[in-house]
Amino acid sequence: MEILTSITDFVSVDLDSSKESGPATDGLTWQQHMKVAVRSVQELRNRLDLASNLEDIGSTTAIKALESFPVFVPLPYLSRIEKGNAADPLLCQVLPTIDEDTIRPGYLRDPLQESAATRSPGMLQKYQGRVLLVTTGACAVNCRYCFRRHFPYEETPKSSTQWQDAIQQISFDESLEEVILSGGDPLTLVDETLGQLVAQIGAIPTIKRLRIHTRLPIMIPQRVTERLLEILSHSKKQVIMVIHANHANELDLPVEIGLAKLANAGVLLLNQSVLLQGVNNDAEVLFRLSQRLLECRVLPYYLHKNDPVVGTAQFEVSIERGVELIRIMREKLPGYAVPRFVQELAGEPNKTVFA
Ligand SMILES: *Cc1c(COP(=O)(O)O)cnc(C)c1O
Ligand code: SF4
Fold first, then answer.
1. Where does ligand 2 bind, in terms of residues with CB under 6 Å?
2. pLDDT by 10s per residue, the chain, length 355
């Protein structure tokens, strides 16, 4: 089984011969979009008509951080950012700043203690009945606030034999009902690989649901290929897809069309967001996000308190503020359009719900 483990592996995928690439609605397939994505601060600033500010990346630690967690912004997402606006809420999610250098007490490399929840390489279990497979370290974007920026992806399986171990463990454990494909982003796997994984999980009788955590339908809507729709609609299990959008501006027409196709294929669509300073710390912004998600046939699921990961303190919004925002949303929206404000606290039997 082919597992793409990094962006570099990714670009070696044959772009022309792959019939799973799907229709190139704006001239490029999703794989081509992965290849031509913006990969440097300079290019990002140039394309968006933003003044170059080398101070932003001037320090040694910041440059080091950029080496291990570089800029990566696909063009469909870039096209939704307002040119010349340094405070654009979509830009803030992807542009590294000198603030990543800030040392803040309580901000750790592995605050979720995922290492402790690892059952076997690439397989995490924290909660009853649900197991999470880290299918790949690759994403279709590098979000600066990401809680997995220090995750040891080298330890995740890279060969089909190693996947067999995880699949076997899942089939022997009758307490498990749901398999979550996560990462990185499982939709960076090519359709053939993903199809094999979905089929293997489909063959486990005790598993009822397959969940996919992905930001790809947002970042590159061309990822919703005919083959992907086929794989998901033919799965023997109920398929739930949890996408990740933080602001209504992320959900443009091509995204809406892709999500409609997924919904028509029988996929239950949910969204998770992270509450982020400079992006969506505002009742009106969150209200519009929920409205737009509903238009796209997606239910708001979680609004996450940011995780205290080294290099991301600039995004912090307090728990009190988050609770207040949810209260305001609840006054204006139907109950199903209000996400749960949560945080994952190490060692707890479920995510902690603040509101
Ligand atoms: C968040 C998470 C889940 C899913 O939790 P739900 O509350 O069911 O959405 C499962 N496993 C791990 C390791 C997680 O971090
Ligand atoms: S898509 Fe998710 S896992 Fe990937 S960088 Fe963004 S927040 Fe992290």
1. 139, 141-143, 146, 148, 185, 215, 244
2. 334 334 444 443 344 444 455 544 468 999 999 999 999 999 999 999 998 755 555 555 556 667 778 999 999 999 999 999 999 999 999 999 888 888 888 888 877 777 778 888 889 999 999 999 999 989 999 999 997 777 666 666 666 666 888 999 999 999 999 999 998 999 999 999 999 999 999 999 999 999 999 999 999 999 999 999 999 999 999 999 999 999 999 999 999 999 999 999 999 999 999 999 999 999 999 999 999 999 999 999 999 999 999 999 999 999 999 999 999 999 999 999 999 999 999 889 999 999 9
Atom of ligand 1 minimally distant from the CA of 125: 13
What is the distance in A from the centroid of ligand 2 to the CA of 23? 25
Buried/exposed 216-236: b ≥16 CB within 10 Å, e otherwise: bbbbbbbbbbebbbebbeebe
Residues 6 or more apart whose CB falls under 8 angstroms from that of 338 comprise: 290, 300, 326, 329, 330
Q: Is any ligand 1 atom within 6 A of the Cβ of residue 351? A: yes
φ, ψ (nearest 5 deg) of residue 30: -65, -35
Smallest CA separation from ligand 2 atom 3, residue: 184
